[in-house]
Structure formats: structure tokens, C-alpha cells
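If you are new to this repository, start here. Below is one unmodified record pulled from the training split, so you can see the exact layout before writing a loader.
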Amino acid sequence: MNSIRYVQCIKNDNYEIDLTVGQVYKALSLTDAEKDADVIRVIDNEGEDYLYDASYFKPFQPDGSGRQLTDSLTIHLDAFTKGVLHAEALAANKTVSALVREWIDERLDLATLITDY
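And here is the target side for that same chain:
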């Protein structure tokens, strides 16, 4: 594994506002001085990067069962953006959902994240 990019919170003792158990957080690089401590720097619920005890998290990685579509996300778009997405999906011979999933995969480079683990 190259480096942990995302972690999942497994406990939030004394940090109930800042961390949510089960939530995935982005992990940031540590400074050389921080690497010797058993800490992890994440962007928390407040949108701030903060050092937490590493025992509060586990690596967030694919479970090996393949990428199943088990969750949904609702987005609200203005009429112009919705129209453009529809036109782009038609031109690509895809559904709007498939086009958006593809865009997300490309932007987050999910294929690289999956092969890193």
C-alpha cells in the first residue's frame, strides 16, 4: 500500500462533534516530527485538519467484493446544468448517472485508490 488517503472513524471518545463513528475522512500527510507519534491528521467534521490518535481510525479500503452500487446520492441542479448533462449523456450514449459516476471516478482517481490496497 502506498499511503493511506482515506480512513474510517471507529471511535470518537471526547470528539463527538468533530468525528462521527463510521464516517470516512481524508487523511493528510504528516510532518517528519509527527511521524514518530501514533497520530493521524484528518480533515474532520468542522472542515479543519487536526491531529487525532491513530487508534480512532482504520484504513478505508475496498472490501474485495467488487464495487457494488449500494448507496445513492441526490444532487440538485439548475435547469441549464441538468440540460447540459443530459445532452452530454446522449452524445456519449450513456445515462446521466453513468456519466456522473464516470466523472467522479476520474476526479477521485478511484481506480488508483483501489489498486493501491
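Two things worth knowing about this chain: The chain has a mean pLDDT of 84. The helical segments are 32-35, 79-91, 96-108, 110-116.
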